[in-house]
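Homework-ish question, so no full write-ups if that breaks the rules, but can someone show me the predicted structure for this set?
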Amino acid sequence: MEHESIKLLESYGVPVAEAELASGVDEAVVLARKIGYPVVLKVVSPDISHKSDVGGVKIGVDSDDSVRSAFSEIISNASKRAPGSRIVGVLVQKMAPSGGVEVIIGGLRDRAFGSVVMFGLGGVFVEVLRDVSFRVAPISEEEAYEMLGELKGSIVLNGYRGIPSVDKLSLVKIILKVAEILDENPEIDSLDLNPVMSYTSGALVVDARIVLRSVG
Amino acid sequence: MNGLRGLEALFNPSSVAIIGATPIEGKIGRVLVENFTKRYRGETYLVNPKYGEILGLKCYKSVKELPEPPKLAVIAIPAPSVPQVLMECGETGVKAAIIISGGFSETGTDEGIRLEREVREIVEKYEIRVVGPNCLGVFDNYSGVDTFFLPEERMKRPPKGGISFISQSGAFASALLDYMAYNNLGIARAISYGNKVDVDDVDLMKFLKDDPVTKVIVLYIEGFKESRGRAFMEVAREVVKKKPVIVYKAGKTPRGSRAVISHTAALAGDYSIYSAAFRQVGIIEAGTFDEITDFAKIFLTQPLMKGNRVFIVTDAGGIGVMLTDALVKEGFEVPLTPEDLREELRKVLPRHCIPDNPIDLTGDADDERYRDVLEIVAFKPYVDALVIGALPHIPGMTMKIAYYISSIVERAGKPVAIIDIGSEVALKFKVEFERRGMPVYESPERVARALRALYAYSKYLKKYERGVSNDP
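A: Not a homework solution, just the prediction itself:
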C-alpha cells in the first residue's frame, strides 16, 4: 500500500513528498501540523487502487478544521463508493509545490529480459499518447538521460517559451533507483511512481504503487 | 544452450548422415539427398532400413552400420521414431544433429510435448548439439550443407555472400532466401531453428560473431524464452562491436496477457521492451520487410558515417527535392552548398546547372559531369555521405557512370547510396551499380531509411569506442 511503498522509496533515498499514515482524525491533525500545511489526504486501503475515483483524495487541505472535514468526507466517500473495503487509515502528505512538470517513472520485471525501467511524461502524454521510453536494466546515467531525450514530448523537459529546463539529473537518479530497487527486491513485480513532479531544481514523488509478485 | 561447443559441425561437417533418405519424389528425404549430392563436398551417408540403394548411392539400415560416426546427422523421419534414432546417434558418437521432423511441442498435444521432452533428455545425456525439431535447419553456402527441404525449382538458392540469417520461422527463412536469390543478394549461412530444443539465437549469434564469412547478421525473432532475452543482449553487445546485426521483430502488437494492475506494465507491450533492448545493444531494427534487405545491402558495402551531413547529386530536380524531404525527416542535415564549393562547382558545371544541395546536374548531364562534380564534392570534410540520383532516362548516361562513382567514393572513403527508378533500363543500371558495390534503392524514402540505419550503427560504435561517459 501507498504508505509502505513510500517508506521503501525513502529507504532508497528517492525524494518523496513527506507522508504519514493517520488511523484517526486527531492523529491526522497532529501529523498535518508536523508536516506543515498545505497537505493532501488520501485514503489507504488494500481494496482501493483508484483512490480519486471513490472520492478518496483531498488536495490543498490548509488548516486543522479542513483536515477534520476532509478526513470524515474521505471515510464516508470510501464506505459509500467502495462498500466493504478495508480502510487502513488516511495518508497525510505534504502538498507538492506547484509549477512542476508531471512525469511517470516505472519499473517492471519481464519474463525474457528481467528488470525494465520506464520513463514518460505524465497526464495526457502518458494516458493518451503513450509517450514513454523503456530500457532493460541495469543502465548507465547516460542511458537514463537518453530515455528523457527519446520522448516525442521531450521539449517539455528542455524548457520552451521562456520556461526553464527541468532538473534532469534528479529524474535520472530516480530512474536509476527504480532499477536498483527491482534488482534488490525480487518480490516486486512492478512499480509506478506516478506522478513525479519535476522542478527546475529537484523532483518529488507524489504517489507510488508497488505490485508484488503473485504467489505461485 | 551450451555455448559454442559442437556448433561448427552443424555448418561445416566432414561427413553427414541423412536419416530418412528416400527415392520417392516429392518427399523431404528425397530433396535432402538431392541437395547434398549436388553441392556438399564431404562424405554423405544415406540411412533408411527400407532401401539398399537410393539414386545410385548405398543406403544403410541404421546410423550404427555406417563406416564412421557422421559429424552431422540430418533427421527427417516421423516424430515418434525420432527419440530412438537420436539415441542411436548419441551412442554412435554423433555430436550434432538437425531434426527437420515436425510433430513435437508445436502441435500442443501431449504426445508432441512428451516426444520433445524425450529429445531434450537425449540431447543432455549425449551432449549432442541439436537444431530443431520442426525446422528447415541449416543452409550453408560455403560447405554445401543444405537441409532446406524445398526443391531448388521452388526456392532458389542465393549466391555466396556476407549475409547470415537466423530465423524463428522456417517459412519466412525460405521466402527470404528465395527473395535474396532473385535480388542477387549473397548469403553465407541461414538457420531456421524451429522449436529450439537446444541451439537458439544466443548460441548462433556467438557462432556467427567469429565466423569470417559472415559480414552482416539478420535475425527474424518472434520471442525469447524465459530469461534468454537478457542472454541475447549480452552476446549481441559483443557481436555488434564486430559486425552489424539487423533484427526484424514479429508480433509487434500488444499481447495483452500481462497483468495490467500497474501503469508501467500496461504501457509495456512486449514489443516496446524488445525494441528498447535492441537499441540498447546497438542492434538495428528493420521495421518493415523491405528494410531487412535495404539495410543489409548498405551495411555490406558501405563504410561507416562520421556525421549526419548528406550531399545529393542528381540529374533530376524533383528527385532531389524528394530526397531532401526524406533525409531531413530521418534526421539528416542536407546543408546548403558553402560558397567555396559553389565557386569550385561553377568552374566545372554549365551555367544552367544548380550547385545548391541537391546539386542538380539536369537532364543533359553525362557520366563525366557526375565524375567532375563528385571529384570535388566527395572529398570535402563536411560531406558525410552522398546520395546520387541516377535516373537513367537521360540520354547522356552510360554504364561508365557506375565506375566513376564507385572509384571516387571509394577513394574518398565516404558512404554512397544510389536512387534509380524505372523499368528495364533502370534495372540494368541497378545491376551495374550493385556489381560495383553500391546499394541501389527505388524510392527516396528507402534510401533515407537505409542511410539512417547506417548512421545509427556508426553512432553506436562511436559511442562504444569512447566508452560510456557520465556526461549528459
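Now go work out the reasoning yourself. Hint: The interface with chain B takes residues 49, 104, 106-108, 110-114, 116, 118, 120, 126, 130, 132-136, 139-143, 145, 168-169, 189-192, 194, 209, 211, 214 of chain A (CB under 8 Å).
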